[in-house]
Write a structure and sequence with these properties.
With 322 residues, this protein is α+β, with helices and mostly antiparallel strands. It contains eight helices and 23 strands. 42% of the residues are buried.
Length: 322
């Protein structure tokens, strides 16, 4: 069994290119190695953190005093309408395999960064789709009981950008099966390519980033679902709120786009240290000049305060702050 690596700089393995050294680092290539690594961390009485591709993580400047465990289980298998993949498989590779096999249901994820396991943990979604819509079952490892578990879709307790794996935090996703639909490989590939092009055009990919910093705001957090104001906002795709006309979109249920709230709060392009609220997409905070984690955190706080003052809405972070 390969041993832990030591003092691996987190800035080299996360998309933000930010973060100090992790005391230990290990890539587990099988469920057995995941069990071994967790057991070894507990024997050393050290904390551990599970890292995917590092596309949604803000690592601390001082690093992480413990084990960073990366499940590198990256197989992809096709069996009829089922696609099964390891948690460490890249979403882009899963999409490519689905398109090649003529399996539809993931086109919305074109251009989505990160790993398959990370997408399931955070119930990734875009363009009116979510990963929960196609998950059949998920295999995981419980780090407290050391049991291997298979959960049905319902047992995963998916919610907006979350799941039981994210909420409880004591299970490591190992693999999952998706139930997809037969489709035309060329049409599927084209739809995926269109989503990739959209992201490239609309998102600030020229700078290190971790995607959307904040969740969009469910309309139900502003008006109770079923009230006349809620129904009017959905029907008109517009919310008249605190003296402003605010757009409403489906994601996959009615939400107020956070990027719009940030822009209307006058925060687009605001910078601190080496970090900046992107003028291209203000729900991205980008690393423009060797930013520190503290710079990103300062801007997160500034944006939350500004939006709360203008719209009386409390934003919730989508980025995971380690």
């Amino acid at each position: 069994m390969e041993q832990f690596k030591e003092n691996i700089n987190l800035s080299g393995i996360t998309n933000y290119r930010i973060g100090g050294p992790a005391t230990f680092f290990f890539e587990a290539k099988s469920p057995k190695e995941v069990l071994w690594a967790v057991n070894a961390a507990k024997e050393r009485k050290t904390d551990f953190f599970v890292l995917g591709a590092g596309t949604n993580i803000l690592a601390p400047d001082e690093g992480f005093a413990g084990l960073v465990l990366r499940p590198k289980i990256d197989f992809i298998e096709i069996d009829g309408d089922f696609l099964r993949a390891g948690a460490g498989a890249l979403v882009s590779d899963v999409l490519q395999a689905a398109a090649k096999a003529g399996l539809s249901g993931l086109e919305w994820a074109g251009g989505l960064p990160g790993t398959f396991g990370g997408a399931i943990r955070g119930n990734a979604g875009a363009f009116k789709g979510e990963i929960k819509d196609v998950v059949h079952d998920v295999e995981s490892f419980n780090t407290k009981t050391f049991a291997f578990i298979t959960r049905t879709n319902a047992e995963c307790a998916f919610s907006y950008r979350s799941s039981i794996f994210k909420e409880k935090g004591d299970e490591i996703i190992l693999s999952a099966r998706l139930l997809l639909a037969k489709g035309d490989p060329k049409k599927i590939a084209k739809a995926i390519a269109e989503k990739i092009a959209y992201r490239m055009n609309r998102h600030p990919m020229e700078y290190p980033n971790v995607g959307s910093i904040f969740k969009n705001v469910p309309l139900a957090r502003i008006y109770a679902e079923g009230t006349p104001n809620y129904a009017d906002a959905v029907r008109n795709s517009l919310l008249h709120f605190r003296g402003s006309s605010v757009p409403v979109k489906i994601d996959p249920f009615p939400v107020v786009p956070t990027a719009y709230l940030i822009s209307e709060s006058g925060l687009k392009g605001v910078s601190f240290g080496g970090a900046m609220v992107s003028p291209k997409h203000p729900n991205f905070i980008v690393n423009v000049l060797d930013a520190k984690a503290s710079d990103i955190k300062t801007l997160i706080s500034l944006v939350k305060t500004g939006v709360a003052e203008k719209f009386a809405v409390d934003l919730e972070e989508e980025v995971h702050i380690l």
